[in-house]
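Structure first, sequence second, as always.
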């Protein structure tokens, strides 16, 4: 997709300083941009790059005034981040607009229903009773199991697997090799120390506007549903166990793990590699620092936590300062003990 600087300014309701006819076709970081790229500046520490960047167009704040002459055309906007997000959405639509055209190498069961404007990639399999909404893009090698229901405007990247009876809402994105609806980890210990598999007969429900990262696994419920609520965002390489629930607009970073039947509230922010024990309830607005471990309920909304087992964020930071000084503190304690014994001897 190509824009002139004048078109960008019009699209973003911004003002223009420089050549209105310069053409750009892709986004780039300000320090790496070349001719034909558009970049952005919304952090003052990157300002030095503005005077040496090779970008053709720069998005800057409405009040920004360069300290030295600049080569790129400046498009001044009210909110740089919002404007950049809008442009990237336009570019992304072009990237996925053609999708992957259906071919004779696609297997769609006679009873499956595929909506208007939906495209299906080569070697994809759509099983009996599946229903796919309108304007979806199904990339090659996607598997959609028996009686799966998928809403409108969904984007399924190559290698996605959605197992039987699962439900995907409207406007969902599922990235490459994610697995929705594999069996939950259900095994009963036997007297001879072996394990007997407990059938997992529930499903997974992804509500509207959910995004699932690459290689993430959301397990089907033993009975009932594992639920990812509206607007939740899951990064790559996350595991959501059977009967767990992730609340509305909650975001989980990479390698987080949520054990069975744990309920995470709305608007939570979960750092990378955070682990949750099973059967917990996590209050709305909870923020958890990376690599923390949760072994008990969080009952107070908007709590910030850190550590393993996780404690209050500020408590952890103060404790960490002390922890780093433990060797010196030990020496001081030993010296004080010697002095105390000497005083007692006297």
């Amino acid at each position: 997709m190509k824009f002139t600087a004048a078109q960008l300014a019009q699209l973003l309701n911004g003002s223009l300083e420089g050549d209105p006819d310069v053409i750009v076709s892709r986004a780039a970081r300000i320090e790496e941009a070349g001719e034909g790229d558009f970049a952005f500046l919304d952090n003052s520490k990157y300002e030095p790059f503005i005077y040496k960047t090779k970008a053709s167009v720069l998005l800057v704040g409405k009040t920004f005034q360069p300290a030295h002459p600049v080569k790129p055309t400046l498009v001044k906007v009210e909110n740089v981040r919002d404007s950049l997000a809008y442009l990237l959405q336009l570019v992304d639509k072009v990237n996925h607009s053609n999708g992957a055209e259906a071919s004779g190498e696609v297997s769609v069961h006679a009873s499956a229903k595929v909506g208007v404007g939906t495209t299906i990639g080569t070697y994809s399999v759509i099983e009996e009773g599946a229903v796919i909404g309108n304007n979806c893009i199904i990339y090659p090698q996607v598997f959609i199991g028996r009686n799966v229901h998928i809403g409108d405007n969904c984007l399924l990247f190559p290698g996605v697997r959605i197992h039987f009876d699962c439900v995907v809402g409207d406007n969902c994105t599922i990235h490459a090799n994610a697995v929705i609806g594999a069996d939950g980890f259900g095994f009963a210990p036997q007297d001879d120390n072996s394990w007997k598999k407990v059938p997992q007969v529930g499903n997974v429900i992804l509500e509207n506007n959910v995004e699932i990262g690459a290689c993430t696994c959301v397990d089907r419920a033993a009975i009932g549903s594992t639920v990812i609520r509206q607007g939740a965002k899951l990064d790559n390489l996350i595991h959501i166990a059977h009967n767990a629930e992730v609340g509305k607009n909650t975001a989980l970073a990479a390698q987080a793990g949520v054990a069975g039947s744990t309920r995470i509230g709305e608007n939570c922010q979960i750092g990378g590699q955070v682990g949750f024990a099973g059967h917990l309830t996590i209050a709305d607005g909870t923020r958890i620092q990376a690599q923390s471990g949760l072994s008990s309920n969080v009952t107070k909304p908007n709590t910030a936590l850190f550590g393993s087992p996780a404690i209050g964020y500020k408590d952890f930071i103060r404790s960490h300062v002390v922890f780093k000084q433990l060797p010196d503190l030990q020496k001081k304690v030993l010296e004080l003990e010697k002095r105390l014994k000497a005083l007692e001897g006297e």
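Margin note: Helices lie at 5-11, 47-50, 80-96, 313-324, 326-345.
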